[in-house]
Predict the structure of Arylesterase.
Amino acid sequence: MAVLLASQSGLAATATNTKAAKAPAPKLLVLGDSISAEYGLERGQGWVQLLSERLKQEYPGLQVVNASISGETTAGGRSRLPALLKAHQPKYVLIELGGNDALRGLPLNSTQANLTAMVDAAQAAGAQVALLGIQVPPNYGAKYSSDFAKMFVQVAQDKSLPLMPFMLEAISDPADLDKYFQNDRIHPNAQAQPILVETVWPTVQTLLGQ
């Protein structure tokens, strides 16, 4: 009997060790638009890839999944997110969307509803969420620009989320247009990508520390 119990104990320990060895690595899902999808850049130059490399050093084992698509709106992100959550089962979700909604003149209430729905979906799947906000230039009208910026703050406050209100803040001065942006004056160039990582890093740290 003693031999049998010892054998069973050994099998249980082996099963536990095997289960632990096969435990999936935690994932950070980035859901964004062209700013996060390396638009106009060589593969591997974008801020998400640079963030992934930094995380490997400071948070070993954490995997970054970049599900960003150029031209993506909040409606598109909202429709894609359930499948992404199911496929990757991320522990963390970083949402960088909204800029294309503004470029298309979409109603702010729809954009806010989409952001809120994405947060709700990610949290329901057991993920921690953070927002990366964007701002639009004054030529959209002072009220629109102000309301657009406040929208991200409102969603973050309502859902108690970490927020970087304006991820391009460090390169937003007029003098930065030629230095840090591509010819379209919309998309950051390769030189700007390490600066974007530094800008979002405190928000990412807060997200991972929740």
